[in-house]
Amino acid sequence: MAKAPKQAIEMTAKQAAFVREYLIDLNATQAAIRAGYSVKTAGVIAVELMTKPHVKAAIDAAMAARSEETKIDAAWVLKRLAAEAEADVADIYEPDGALKPLKDWPKIWRQGLVAGMDVEEIEIEGVKMGLIRKVKISDRVRRLELIGKHVNVQAFQENVAVSGVEALADRIARAKAKAGGK
After folding, report:
1. Residue 41 CA: distances (Å) to CA of 33, 61, 142
2. Rounded to whole angstroms, how far apart are CA atoms 166 and 129?
3. Which domain holds residue 63?
4. pTM for the whole thing?
5. Mean pLDDT comparison of 81-95, 134-148, 149-163, highest-scoring range
């Protein structure tokens, strides 16, 4: 006799609220609190909710819908990171070394490559002599790390595989036994 198919588990109102709140900042504990769960137990509840297949499926579906709506997906992120990593700082300077007006900068520079600018006015005896403009460039190495992780080049591997631990444990146990016997 064939088994009846499993019925889909319906989410409670709090679980649905958790899914909506999780999409705000991807912080499960804060999402649980905002969804109405106890502050004291929010961390534990968040872990439980993230492991429930129907809640995880709802989060995945909502994230996929958001990516579709915004047209931002992994390929978009990788293209953007690559464009930022390859941007040439010379594009924001005139041939004589002066900083170009902001309106003349390439779009990629205006959209996040600059972390800040300092402008200092030089005065000598009350006479304005010029300006010093310092451009602070955002962390380009971090972009390369993200690209490296995304394309799996192992250049920035965070996990280290350890082998031979069992053999080491056996050797330590034998050494302890030997030392205890004397």
Report:
1. 9, 26, 35
2. 72
3. 13-71
4. 0.54
5. 81-95
